[in-house]
Fold these 2 entries.
Entry 1:
Amino acid sequence: MSQAAKVLQLFKTLHRTRQQVFKNDTRALEAARIKINEEFKSNKSETSPKKIEELIKIGSDVELLLRTSVIQGIHTDHNTLKLVPRKELLIENVPYCDAPTQKQ
């Protein structure tokens, strides 16, 4: 896959992730859209393949961070937030064991 195709794919992936992560939050959706577009425009004239690969890696890391670490919160009272985790963030709770057993 060419670098231009990788950049375009990353751009689209970041916007899709933004729409999932900040669903129903117009202010956050708009801020993320502006930031993504700003970052891509500021590096539009980059020609060094090494630098482009580095920027693609940073963008991929940001997408992963957004997808796996961001939880929406909704103000319900003056000092209260209601957390709205996405289904893909909810994982099975593995019970803690004080006395681990050795594998055979």
Entry 2:
Amino acid sequence: MFSSSLLLQILACAIYSNWWPMLSALMYVLVPMPCMFFGGGSTEYLLSREGGGWADAAKFLTGASAVGSIAIPIILRHAHLISTGAMLIEFMSFFIFVGTVMCFHRATLEDEW
């Protein structure tokens, strides 16, 4: 699933001969960073109500990065830097990526296979 998401990301750029959509791929790298730095590499803190300074900062940065993944193609389309087709391919890539992350998160929470 992750490979198909990455393929759609590249196709959104290659089909329309415009590499601006690759800017949203940067957000795919930034989304897990707060989890790695502030959450100790575990995603369990995202679902907990317990907080603290660093845990709340990690939740905020993760949310901001996720919103940025959707906002960047919209902003690029509004500025007429990418076409509508490239924006729609970017959205499909994002939703497949989110589905991949959710499946991975669910699989890591289950102890028995």
